[in-house]
Amino acid sequence: MRLVVTRCTVDYSGRLEAHLPEAVRLLMVKADGCVAVHADGGAYKPLNWMNAPNVLVDDPDRWVVTNSKGERLEITLLEVLSDTTYDLGDDPGLTKDGVEAHLQQLLAEHPDALADGLQLVRREYPTDIGPVDLLCRDGEGSYIAVEVKRRGEIDGVEQLRRYMDRLDRDPLLRPVRGIFAAQRVKPQARVLAADRGIRWIEVDYDLLRGRQSDELRLF
Amino acid sequence: MRLVVTRCTVDYSGRLEAHLPEAVRLLMVKADGCVAVHADGGAYKPLNWMNAPNVLVDDPDRWVVTNSKGERLEITLLEVLSDTTYDLGDDPGLTKDGVEAHLQQLLAEHPDALADGLQLVRREYPTDIGPVDLLCRDGEGSYIAVEVKRRGEIDGVEQLRRYMDRLDRDPLLRPVRGIFAAQRVKPQARVLAADRGIRWIEVDYDLLRGRQSDELRLF
DNA sequence: GACTCTATCTCGGTA
DNA sequence: TACCGAGGTAGAGTC
User: In terms of C-beta density within 10 A (0-12 exposed, 13-18 middle, 19 or more buried), how is residue B65 classed?
Assistant: First the structure.
């Protein structure tokens, strides 16, 4: 990784046009070739950047980064305050826990957390507009489509409604009802769900996970 | 801006749980207080981060960053290879051109690029669920709601449909039709628009801009 | 503060 | 490669 602190101006042309007037900034060049221009604020996002793969021509007073999509980043270096390179080596990478896939898995294992007597038919049940997160049946054998989100917002309700429309055209499944499950369901999403005749449920992730470990404890 | 190159492990706990095993990485602390952990790849995005405002306790061998939402970033420094601080000063900031606002402005000036005889009633026409990008009338005086996107995807079509629902309840406007305009309309969005009785149009940004400069040339 | 929508979104998966 | 969906989305604007 190469780090250059420099007084510079920057022009980007590609998906939009952008210009940065003269100031001192940090240029970061990573081993994969991506270039980022950082100011001393604005969170972690750089002011300008160019992802790999690209071609960097780094003359002492001007860097030009181009890629095959016709994007172009031009940095004019007026004064270089520091220019250092480090060998960081490969990164073993990140492990995550608590995202939507995990929530879906937990609910697939405990569909009764959504409604009494609910049983899983299958995860990722396919339709011609994409897979439904969970397809279940209730105690009376009626089909219920479940959409799982970490954050329940309007888009998710619309998505579920589109799936229900599709499934409901299948005489073997009809009538299909829906449950919208999320850790938190936003007020607007609640209203829209009610309007569409869809039940919504806020799921307690820690409780679900706890329930799982309770079961594990039995063995 | 403080830049620390260090062999470290990282743990984040908050909106999810994440762990980074031991490796050499760059820690970036900006003047606004945000902390980012960068590896030597993966584009401009850091592996882990904590935005401002937060509290950083930076002991020599362990940094703990916490915020008021209960998020916590813990960095264990096993070996510090470099620790430098630069005064970058304020950044004058970025000027952009070519984003959605610009496209909307151009279409407001040239509604006939969307359909022959179309005339603008007003931009950002208010409804009780938010403003419609453009409200127009066609040659016969019928109202047409226009949603403008840079990238036309499913969400945008649903958004337009919600606006149309609202506008259509107004007896002074009814019946209201819709046009979905974007630089590129994705296949799924095309299908959904057709399904909802909405016309979609791909707009050539450069052409529109060119048309504008043609007009300017007349003066 | 909550909610809205944009973004050079980024990133990963898949066909 | 393009398309599609998720994101610790971030960030700006509005109410």
Answer: buried
Give the CA B92 to C1' D2 distance in Å. Answer: 37
Domain boundary among B52, B85, B118: B85
Which of A69, A78, A94, A161 is most worth mutating to test chain B (most B CB atoms within 10 A of its CB)?
A94
Series of mean pLDDT values for 10-residue runs along chain B (219 residues):
96 90 94 92 89 93 92 96 93 84 92 94 86 93 94 89 89 93 90 89 85 58
Q: Is residue B75 a contact partner of residue B66, using CB atoms and an 8 Å limit?
A: no
Task: Give the predicted TM-score (pTM) of the model.
Answer: 0.84
Mind listing the pLDDT tens digit for each residue in B112-162?
999 999 999 999 998 877 889 999 999 999 999 999 999 898 889 988 988
Same domain? A78 vs A109: no
Q: Do residues B55 and B67 make contact, with C-beta atoms less than 8 angstroms apart?
A: yes
pLDDT tens digit sequence for A120-166: 998 888 887 778 899 999 999 999 999 999 888 888 888 898 889 88
Provide the CATH number for the domain around residue B115. Answer: 3.40.1350.10
**Domain residue limits at B104:** 100-212
Q: Does some domain include residue A62? A: yes
A186: which chain B residues are within 8 Å (Cβ-Cβ)?
none
User: Which secondary structure element, helix H or strand E, spans residue B64, and what is its range?
Assistant: strand B62-66
Q: Do A40 and B18 touch (CB under 8 A)?
A: no
Burial (CB < 10 A; 0-12, 13-18, 19+), residue B10, is buried
Burial of B47 (0-12, 13-18, 19+ CB in 10 A): buried
The CATH number given to whatever domain includes residue A14 is 2.70.180.20
Domain end, chosen from B50, B85, B120, is at: B85
Report yes or no: B122 and B160 within 8 Å, Cβ to Cβ.
no
**Beta bridge mates, A36:** A28, A49
| Token output for B154 | 């499913």
> Cα separation of B106 and B212, whole Å?
8
Do A104 and A201 sit in the same domain of this protein?
A: yes
- The vertex-B77 CA angle with B73 and B82, nearest 5°, equals 115
